[in-house]
Amino acid sequence: MNLQWQDFFARRTERVTGSQIRQFFALTERPEIISFAGGFPDNDFFPSEDLSRVMASLVKDDPRQTLQYGPTEGLYELRVYLSGKLRRAGALCESENIIITNGSQQGIDLLSRVLINPGDPVLVEEPAYIGGIGAIKSYGGIPLGITIDQDGPLPESMLETILSLKKDELKPKFFYSVPNFQNPTGVTTSLERRSKILEIASLHNLIIIEDDPYGELCYDNLVPPSYYALDRQERVVFLGSFSKVLIPGIRIGWMAGARTLLEKITLIKQTTDLCSSSIGQRLAYRLAQDGYIDRHIERLCSLYRQKRNAMLAAMQQFFPPSVTFSQPGGGFFCWVKFPDHYPPSSELLKLALEKKVAFVHGEGFFSSKGGSHTARFSFSQPGLNDINNGIRIFGDLLWEIENHGHNSLPAVNL
Ligand code: PMP
Fold first, then answer.
1. For residue 11, what pLDDT is reported?
2. Which domains, from first to last, does the chain contain?
3. Is ligand 1 within 6 A of the CB of residue 183?
4. What are phi and psi of 189, to 5 degrees?
5. What pTM does this model have?
6. Which of 85, 239, 338, 345 has its CA 20 to 30 A from that of 166?
7. Contacts (Cβ under 8 Å, ≥6 apart) of 343
């Protein structure tokens, strides 16, 4: 008898469906394609030589600590360093308020596991980071989208959702937000909005999960103070990561929050992976404490700034004026909106792939049915010429739709 694996899967796995990004990945990452789809850092910006030198010296000089298991909470020195950094940014934080995670993705997963009961409503941004929505759903959370504009989540939308849940005697567990250079829109939440949202959270007793992998990659102005720094009630949990400011391959991130919460998270992390990578933590600590990462971030900002500028200039030059795009002040992403009379962005993607250009169409970032005429364009990976050429090629396609309607375009079947 043939074994049917589907019959063995736990019910909670049914809620997790593959992201569209992954479905299209094989196509969008073909070498002949100019891809604005993946949200990865630029491989060419990895400081490989410095990393191999430091890594070799760690293994040679301190093999015991570098190669051995470590405490579940993480390397003590790294926790001291990170709490100091958060304190300098205005937060009340000690090393006991920090746990090192396997990237910030593990932070979202552990928090969802510790906080969500199946059926719990959870507030997310609309659109939101797909990996956040996925983690929340995987524990049975029901993500409810809070509309965002160019200044971040709308407090009215948040209140409306909370009050309509209240009518059914329901209450959201937490609000998951990426306040700086958000994935997917590039939007940064203004200070005024942060204060209002904290007020609402306090009034309705919600937790805020602040996921901030991009905040230090800022190309114009510094970002406003974090929710974590503004909070005085221990209702904010902060997630940070070395993935975008150093390398994602290290898989090191951190969570900062109330001690009672971290005790629970530590127990759960123990059952997940015992501890995060000792090699990764020692590498991150060595590079962070002597200022190397801060200097590297300055280099990254000047390199990514050029890419951001190239993308915005090309969109301005080559897109029809009816197509609008966000003005990211940092991070990796630009959000594009097409007029309603255009074909859905999933169709535009198929047409673009024919012309060897790729991006991510928007629906997957929405908890509701919205987003059919939106798309995420990432400028982090392609080179400056490819950015200009790719946007020009896609712009030509948009002008054809603008001038002749989309029926003039050939049908494609991918
Ligand atoms: N949060 C956001 C908003 C992200 O964009 C990403 C990576 N794409 C992550 C979390 C996960 O990052 P990591 O686990 O590498 O720290």
1. 86
2. 10-47+295-400 (3.90.1150.10), 62-291 (3.40.640.10)
3. yes
4. -70, 130
5. 0.95
6. 239
7. 351, 401, 406
